[in-house]
Each structure stands twice: as C-alpha cells, then as structure tokens.
From TrEMBL:
Protein's UniProt name: Peptidase M20 dimerisation domain-containing protein
Ranges of residues in domain Peptidase M20 dimerisation: 162-261
GO molecular function: acetylornithine deacetylase activity; metal ion binding
Species of provenance: Staphylococcus carnosus (strain TM300)
InterPro entries per UniProt: Bact_exopeptidase_dim_dom, Peptidase_M20, Peptidase_M20_dimer, Peptidase_M20A
GO process terms (BP): L-arginine biosynthetic process
Amino acid sequence: MTKTLDLLKSLIEFDSSTKDEANKTLQFCKNWLEQEGLEPVRLSNEGFDSLICNVGAGEKRLILNGHLDVVSGNPNQFEPKVEGNKIYGRGSADMKAGVSAMMSALSELQHKDLGNTSVQLQLVTDEEIGGKHGANFLTDQGYLGDFVICGEPTQLGIGYQAKGILQVDIHLKGKSAHGSRPWEGDNAIEKALETYQKILNLPFAKESTELFEGPSINLAKIRGGSVYNKVPDEAVISYDIRFLPGQSEKEILKQIENEIDGEISIHLSGASVMNETDNPFIQKLVTEISQETHQSPESVKLFGQHGFADTRYFARFGTPAVEFGPSGAAWHGDGEYAEIDSIKIYKDILVRFAESFSN
C-alpha cells in the first residue's frame, strides 16, 4: 500500500486544474509507469493529453479509465495531509485515489497470467470540463473494450446507470415599450418565467424509473433587460436537464419546442448510461467486491448517478461502462479526502477482477 499511497501523494501535489498542469501530471504518470517496466503511450488532441497503457494480449479487453484533472482548489489543498485513515487534498477522492490504485494494479497485472484478457489503462486530462478532448476523442478513435470501469469515488459501490445531459439556451422575443406603460409591450422576461413552469409540467418531467424519481431540471441562468424604464424585448433562459436512462433527447426537445414560442440552441448534450444488473461483468464485479470487503453480494451497493462521468462516451457505442471507485467525501469541496484503507481494497479488487475477467 505504501507505493500506492506515495503515488497518490505525488499526484495530489500537482494543481491539475489547468490544462498545462494536467498535462504535466500525465507526464509524471507516464514516467512512473515506465519505471515500473510498462510501455505507456501518450496521445494529444488539441493540446489535451491522454495516456494509454496495455498489459496482457487476450481478446477480452477490460478498460480502466481515470482522469487526472481536478477542479480549482485552495493552495493548501495541493499539500497532501494524512490524518488517521484519511488523506486530504484536492483530487484525493475525485479521482486521484482511483487513478493511483489503477496504476498500481496495472503494475501488478503485468506479472500475472491474464489468460484471454487484456487490460488497458486510460488516463485523460479534461473530464471535469466535459471530456471532449479525452474520453470522447479516445472512444472516437476506437479505444473501446468489453467492459469499462471509471474510477470515480463510489464508496466501493457500483454506479451502473447515469442520467444523460442536455443543456439548452431558449431565446425568447417580446416587444419593447416604456416602463411606465408595460401593457403596450410584451415582456420577454415574463415569457421566460412562464416557460420555466411549462417545462416542469411537460410529460418527460413527470417520468420516473426504479432508480430515479425523475429527471433533474435546473434553471441555470436567465438573461434579459438592460434598463429599468423599458419593457425587455429579449430574454434567454438556460437549462441544465439531466434526463433519465431510457428517455430520448430528441423527444425532450420536441416536447419543449411544441410548448414554447422561442428558439432553442443546444450548449451540451450527452447520452445516458443504461446497464442492467444482470450484466455478467457487473455480476462478476459484485462477487469480487463481496469477497474482498467480506460482505454478502446482496449488500454491495448498486445505484444510479444523477451526474455524468466519462462512462457516457463508452455508452454511446454500446460498451458497458460503470463508475466504481474508492471511498471518500467532499470532492470539489474544501475538505476533500479519500479513505486510505479503501484504496488498497479497491486496488486488490481490480487485480482479482482482471485475473478472472475472461473466465
């Protein structure tokens, strides 16, 4: 565990909240893997670097996917601090603990007989800003497999489904008039407020699944008006919609378009992740978690994620991808930490899972 923990401490020391520092962090990982006797390959896409490293030569491919970038933090968060079973620092949970365990696991796996399995480590540098140049690029280039584990912090549970994302701007037109005579105009901001209520009552907004009570609909921004004494003739209302697995992005847009009098522009969209618990790889992973954590298979937590991770880029190609990582808390917060004992357990689960992957 000392090697993995020392690696994690080194990763935390990088303020990888910027592209340049994230790329430097990736170069550090490349050097570390090479010192372990591995042969990582560095790729670049519009200035954002990624890393690929393979062990084994089997036909069944397991992908271990991790991101090195973090959200911004206070300077002292890039000074790792260990207190008891916790290691504090920016990115400790999200997700450098997962990355350090994956790298250590790969180092061990190169010395094992993997049978018909190959394992590919993928490290990217832009997950926190959307993943366009990392996981999106890699999957477009064909870096796919039979099963994907993204090492996001999941408390050693499995996030096997995730909502999709649809971020839209709705442009509404009104008619200007003097502020003292608003009845002579058509207030675009009032239209925006009416639009918000209409969207909350659309059919897609009322749907639910076994894992989710409903989609997440966040009124993120509203812009309109310039002076007090004028009826605003333009407004833009912006939504962050996280739709349910099984819902259609096109159908959601159609419902909105049929209800509003305005123009819609898409800022960002991404597929949902929809796996089933009877997937044989998920069942195998449950078994390994159960054995390593000394709990019954029924006690292993299986859940759905409201947010999204790089799993969505694999899901669009039909590749089963789950979030599975060590325990921690307060990611993106001032007190972010990872639980040290869970990192070793996580690494050991990855090794055992890879060894039995093609059985």
